[in-house]
Amino acid sequence: KLYVVILKANFTVQTFRSIFIVCKYSAASEFNPYRVLGVSTHASQAEVKKAYKQLAREWHPDKNKDPGAEDMFIKITKSYEILSNEEKRANYDRFGQTDENQHHGQAPQGFRHFHDNFYFDQSFFHFTRSTRDFTDSKHLLHHDHYMKEVVPDSFKRPYLIKMTSEWCFTCIHIEPIWKETVQELEALGVGIGVVDIGYEKRLASHLGAHRTPSILGLINGKVTYFNYAISKEYLRQFVESLLPQRLVEKVTDDTYLQFLNGWREENKPRVLLFDAVPSVPLLYKLSAFAHQDFVRFGYVDQGLTETLRILQQFNINTYAPTMLLFKENTEKPADVIQSRGMKKQLIDEFFSNNRFLMVPRLVNQKLFDELCPVKQFHRRRKYCVLLITGEDEAFVPVNDAFFAFASANTKEVLRFTYVYQWQQQPLCDALLKKEDMTPPQVIILERRSTTGKVLYRTVKGGWNGSDEDKHRLHEQLELLQRDPSFLTYDAMLPELNNEFASVSVPHDLRQSDKDVVLVLQSQTLHYSFLNVDKHSQWMDSLLELAPSSRPRDEEEEESTPSSKRDYTGYVLALNGHKKYFCLFRPVFTGDEPDCSRSSDEDGGGSRARSRGSSRQRSASTRQIHHKLDRLSLWMERLMEGTLPRHYVSDWPDLKTISPQK
């Protein structure tokens, strides 16, 4: 078979050389990369590269419509791959061997149709890129875009990022798998990125990725590298492994009421996801991660006998996945969706319409800004009806009466909220000090500027939840909508405390040699401390009530009457309502490592500990700041909810004080 060549005008020597290369019989005895590129066996790397670029531009299948262009382009590329690599070139020169010798007459497996994904810089070749590489081109990342948009967005969804380059021939092998994986994961809500390290060296250096192809994951601003064989299933598992644990809580007949009643503590609506698969689908996990700031997720496996009662309770159709969203009323869902083809867009719309409780608590400035926006023009006027109250049992009837009133008044211009006075004391002082009032009080306010200025008025008579109080509040809200000048007071509000913010351990506690730090877990973290001299008996009682918190070596030491446990530097995270605690045992990282002890973050595994040496124990006490070196890691796991929990039937009496020596 002889190729027929039509010579055009204005051909050059280079064109003639290109034509000469392909004017040959296909039954050539041997694949020769030198002949393909038209260079001598002594050609320098610069000459090889120059010849390759010229031929690649001419025979690129997107530009050259010759039927043999694809095969020729593959041979040109393979030739350059061999001759541009010193080791492969030397191997060919000595033995005439290439990895693809036995397949020289056809496109090598793995490289067939590789032009579908391989692209060149259009500024160099001066022709428009084919739409065949659109999968990569639309996901290309640049340094500024990555830092300003992708990293912040990674706190809402994980990213899968591929490192590649225009001259990465190995990258061609993974393209079919990458395309298929991107198509599936992007539809579920996973972010996709592609970094060309040839053009984005700054970003590649920032990511610490200098080899191609490489794949990495990004979530919450942190980068993780994928180190397994590239397959769609492994990449899917990798993305799933990036997500925090306990995003979705497994719910059964015995736990669903406790789950639904958690709305008050977490200040979030609750969602129950019903499906017939044993493990939580990735789509639900990604949705839970994206909306975790506003909604708490639970999963009900419809195939378990332990979920029959909850299925009957809410009359669930088991033939299609179902989502029930609950707010303050735990007996009746506030919203429902059911679909056999549950899609991301449907789920996102469902949650965007149900981000808040009927009466949410103001726990930070961001929430205040969303619930009670600043007045911009008359048609967007909104009023915030704020209950200043407490969370003690005495306030429960008062709060419930306010919730009931708000549920019956759902006008668009009104937003009902509440705060706990002790959590937002500066805000409450600014609103109550002029009239010298004490909670519970209802205040109607309108925000007038982002700097904190508000117009407000306190509802006379306070708020006890009586019918008279409800009638009075209703009248004043009606009057306000007729006459905005009803709000007669003005104030400058401080920024709200962030009740969910993490707080670092105070420096003076780190330096103390007599303290047990208490981290009280509720809606936020509150720090306190116990004095070892006064409260060691309380610690003994607490650990006795929870045997799971005591490692074996400590149990052995207890058998020795003279042994006395040193609690210096211990940290407890207590959940008073649910009656459990997490325990951090201090780690000594000074000059005597044998006296080190680890925290519960290893799940209660082996712990190296001193065998009662008073000298070692004294050294450990002096190095208290070293003992807390691993506290930050323990705190991360505490916030993730992955630490072991030690439950107690009741809390020991804190009034128990150890006798003074």
Automatic annotation (TrEMBL):
It is found in: Endoplasmic reticulum membrane. InterPro entries: DnaJ_C16_autophagy_reg, DnaJ_domain, DnaJ_domain_CS, DNAJC16_TRX, J_dom_sf, Thioredoxin-like_sf, Thioredoxin_domain. SMART domains: DnaJ. Residues 32-96 form the J domain. One of its GO terms (cellular component) is endoplasmic reticulum membrane. One of its GO terms (biological process) is autophagy. Coiled coil: none annotated. Residues 545-564, 592-624 are annotated as: Disordered. This is DnaJ homolog subfamily C member 16. It is a single-pass type IV membrane protein. Plays an important role in regulating the size of autophagosomes during the formation process. Its main location: endoplasmic reticulum. It holds the Pfam family Thioredoxin. Keywords: Autophagy, Glycoprotein. It comes from Astyanax mexicanus.
